[in-house]
Amino acid sequence: MRTRAAVALEAGKPLEVMEVNLEGPKAGEVLVEIKATGLCHTDEFTRSGADPEGLFPAILGHEGAGVVLEVGEGVTSVAPGDHVIPLYTPECRECEYCLNPKTNLCQSIRSTQGQGLMPDGTSRFSMLDGTPILHYMGCSTFANHTVLPEIALAKIRKDAPFDKVCYIGCGVTTGIGAVINTAKVEIGSTGIVFGLGGIGLNVLQGLRLAGADQIVGVDLNDSKSQMGRHFGMTDFVNPSDVKGDLVEHLVELTGGGADYTFDATGNVGVMRTALEAAHKGWGESIIIGVAPAGAEISTRPFQLVTGRSWRGTAFGGARGRTDVPKIVDWYMDGKIEIDPMITHTMPLEDINKGFDLMHSGESIRGVVIY
Ligand code: NAD
Ligand code: AHE
Ligand code: ZN
């Protein structure tokens, strides 16, 4: 079939909206009509050329929601008409990783996924002249139709609005999951969140959900403060306004450092600040942000010797097929909020404007509606 997609032809170039060819689903695969997709900073990270795993030409996008149109041979867990959220972290429920309760990082298709290919080592997308186009994070939600492995689809309830729950495909789950699954924050804790964008705001609402007492938000952009307070932030710090050392300021503000700190910026300098602002003896710092090729983290080992720990999280530690339908329920039941964070919607043709809004700091989440 043919479908419309925003194609990343080369690193650093705007996406180009065009008709592309899409082959039908092979065994174990599913054809999905994408109804809506969010624009996550990770898409921009890859588009810009900063991703060491970035490959081109590719169809980016990994925060979608849609409807199953057709299933390949052997597919049993979804059927045409089902509503689904694509999963860049699949859940095969069989590999060594899925069987270990300590991780959500299913590895059953990770190597082909990282090469922009389906598990059989080929791509379903091509240009109209036949040139192959690569998949991205196993999802490629910047195409109106896409093919995914069955194990990379969470089946969700049919009354959930696509243009909101697409955000559960990455940002919501990553932010809330970092608090609940990865940090396992206890009632009464203190938390500091660095970067109040599409991920950081969800960390804030995760901390509120977990019953944290003090929730500090840190961002260079003052305009993020109002939205931060809406999602549970109790104190806002703009590093540009701090005279003296930011770590000292945060340690003083939290009475000795925070029980939990989270980096949602992708800046390795911020990651160091986040680690050092964690409480001596027990503070945990969780890295969510994705850093550019070549960037490395550093601190004095003494920071760890004296009881702070540095950890990371992917997709908020969530097992997608199991956890994503539950998070959709939380949204539908009013337990978590999504709507205020979706500040801009646009047709696929305007997707590059969506990335401009991300850069200028005007949007929290831009969502493309097909
Ligand atoms: P975003 O652009 O919406 O938000 C980033 C925020 O950080 C902005 O508000 C910006 O003002 C702020 N910021 C930038 N530099 C800062 C600094 N030095 N100090 C304080 N604040 C600063 O991005 P997003 O979509 O929220 O993504 C955030 C990061 O999380 C990105 O690196 C993204 O790639 C990563 N991410 C990781 C996962 C994962 O599974 N680990 C999932 C999704 C996104
Ligand atoms: N390709 C990059 C790393 C990108 C990365 O860390 N991706 C996160 C999800 S970000 C979603 O917005 C992730 O899930 N990582 C685990 C994995 O297996 O990719 C690089 O630096 O090479
Ligand atoms: Zn993402």
UniProtKB/TrEMBL annotation:
EC number(s) on file: 1.1.1.284
Cofactor: Zn(2+)
GO cellular component terms listed in the entry, alphabetical order: cytosol
Keyword annotations: Metal-binding, NAD, Oxidoreductase, Zinc
Coiled-coil ranges from the UniProt annotation: none
PANTHER family: ALCOHOL DEHYDROGENASE, ALCOHOL DEHYDROGENASE CLASS-3
Protein's recorded name: S-(hydroxymethyl)glutathione dehydrogenase
Upper lineage: Bacteria, Pseudomonadati, Pseudomonadota, Alphaproteobacteria, Rhodobacterales
